[in-house]
Amino acid sequence: MIHYHPGKANVVADALSRKTSCNCTSATSLHATLCQEMERLNLSIVSEGTLANVALTPTLRDQVVTAQKNNTGMEKIRQRLMENDPRAVCFYQDSEGVLWFDNRLVVPKDLELRKQILDEAHLSRYSIHPASNKMYQDLKQRFWWTRMKREIARYLSECDTCQRVKASHLRSAGPLQSLSIPSWK
After folding, report:
1. 64, 56 in Cβ contact below 8 A?
2. Rounded Cα–Cα distance for residues 19 and 6 (Å)
3. So where are the chain's domains?
4. Would the pTM of this model clear 0.85, i.e. be above it?
5. Looking at the domain covering 59-161, what would its CATH class be?
6. pLDDT tens readout for residues 109-160
């Protein structure tokens, strides 16, 4: 059974020991409509005017497709596809002539383009410098090129920010040497 002692007898203040003479007013929330907010900001809706449409297009994909058309290595893969070579079983070409490895876009051996893809995956504000495995897992969902994992590891070894933050896993030089205790006269 709980006994309630009002006022100072309570060691811990609680809601029941508060004074009843406080100014308790009911709070009503004011939900301003969009029109009221616009009037408050001296904005108005203009009935005449033009509507601008912004469309976002994936530029990396377009750059990869353009680079595929001008690359000799991609021509070799296309030739193997025409000959039904068993080494090109995982590759296919869509109706636009774009080469795919399973469901991943094939990136030709264009170092600037690959660096741009790696920069986008590593330096963007949404990814925040992922480690090698995470970056590889993210990139391999959309892109494919030979020795991709090795190139990602090399790219990360050159990232100054990652090297500064990286934890040191070196063994300590040895146990600390205790200092001699000075004697007082």
Report:
1. no
2. 10
3. 59-161
4. no
5. mainly alpha
6. 999 999 999 999 998 887 888 999 999 999 999 999 999 999 999 999 999 9
